[in-house]
Design a protein that fits this description.
Elements: H1 6-10, H2 13-17, E1 21-26, E2 30-35, H3 59-65, H4 70-79
Antiparallel strand pairs: 1-2
Length: 86
């Protein structure tokens, strides 16, 4: 059985008709095409709600959730152990 490449899939009339691909704009990557969730649930519909996080976008929030105070987070940023948002 042949394997279809992504462009062939994106040109497929059936996949277009069911809305399998969504165009989005990512803040650092620009125009992107994402694959929608392949199943539909009436009670809890799946959807693409946000872009993939930028490198370091949530590092400080995660450190806070882990119990680090602001001074410790500043030290981690200064040492390079935490990455600041781009």
């Amino acid at each position: 059985m042949p394997v279809a490449d992504i462009q062939t899939l994106m040109d497929d009339e059936h996949l277009k008709a069911v809305g399998m691909f969504e165009r989005h704009h990512h803040p650092s990557e620009g125009a992107t095409v994402l694959v929608r969730p392949p199943v539909t649930f009436s009670e809890s519909p799946a959807d693409i709600r946000r872009h993939a996080p930028l490198f370091g976008e949530h590092s400080q929030a995660v450190a806070r959730e882990l119990g680090y105070d602001e001074a410790s987070i500043a030290d981690l940023l200064a040492s390079g152990a935490l990455i600041p948002p781009a």
